[in-house]
Every structure is written in C-alpha cells, then in structure tokens.
Amino acid sequence: MSYILGYDPETLREQVDVRRCKDRLEELGQQRSLPALLERVWLLKVLGKADDALAISEQSVRVARMGGTRKDLLRARILHASVQQVRGAYAAALQELSTCIDEAEGQGWPALAAFAYQHRGKVSYDAQDYASARADFRRALALRQELNAPEDQLASTELALDAADRRRNSVAS
To answer: What is the pLDDT of residues 95-129, one digit of tens each?
Structure first.
C-alpha cells in the first residue's frame, strides 16, 4: 500500500495519507542507512517540513557520496533538488536536476532520467515556465512508456502534462 493517494491536479503535489506518513517517520526514527535517510527526506517533504527535509537531504547526499553507488547518489541529488523546489529555490533545483539528467542519460539509466525529467518539469511548473515543464513531462512520459513503467508512474506524468497544457493555454489566452 502506497503513502500516495493521488496528485493535486493544480499543484502536482502528492496527496498522501498523513497518518501513515507520520507513523512511518516515527518508525524510521534516527536510522542512518541511505534508504532510511532518503525515505525520511521524502516523508518530511510531503508532510510540509521542508527545512527538516533539507537538512536530511544534504546528509543523504553526503552518505551516498561516501558509500553508495552512482545511482544512489543520483537518487539522493534528485530528491535534494525536489526539496529545494518545495522551498522555492527554483534556480538551484533546475541546475541540480539538469546535471542529474545529463548524468543519467550519459550513463544509460533511462528510469533515473525519467525521474529527473519529471522533477525538473515540476520545478518549471512551479516557476510558471509551462513550456519547459511540458517539454520535460513529455520526455519523462516517452522514457517511461519505452520502459513499460508502472501505471502509477505513467498516470502521474500524464496528469502533470495535462496540467502544464492547461496552464500554458490559460496564460496564452
């Protein structure tokens, strides 16, 4: 069972089961393994505790650099950028995600590239750059379709693409 109940069609933010998220956060406690740190970052982020999420995300990037794989580090950096986005640091998030996309594509990791494109699209969306958001969502969708990604990933990308289209069209009108 997922913590995500759906996505807000206007903000593209995850709609989560708050009680389950809080319970899981408490369960994780102060675990310092990379998977636990990454999960804590995400939980703090979706619970609206962006400052706490930022501190843990910075720690997760350090831990991934010291003992994780390149893929682990890329995941940690993408999550760190998503925390920057929530905090309104769009330029920093865009820069980080762009380098993550370059690395994922250069290494031939299409699933991670799609994940980074999706997040960069969300940053552009929040920054009201709907054309860039749309381009990133389209690329994420194409990669996910090629990979036969799970339906929930395809659906979230399609929702984001529709939202960017609506916003772009309303701005153009």
So the answer is: 999 999 999 999 999 999 999 999 999 999 999 99
Strand partners, 6: 15
Residues 122 and 133: beta-carbon distance below 8 Å: yes
CB atoms within 10 A of CB 108: 8
H or E segment and range at residue 6: strand 4-7
3 state SS of 109: coil
In 3D space, the residue among 163, 98, 101 whose CA is nearest the CA of residue 130 turns out to be 163
Tokens 């990308």: give the residue.
157
**DSSP run (H or E) holding 14:** strand 14-16
Cα gap 132→46, rounded to integer Å: 24
Residue 77, both tokens? 């950096």
Write out the residue range of the structural domain in which residue 147 sits: 4-172
Domain at 120, CATH number: 1.25.40.10
Q: Which two tokens stand for residue 51?
A: 């400052």
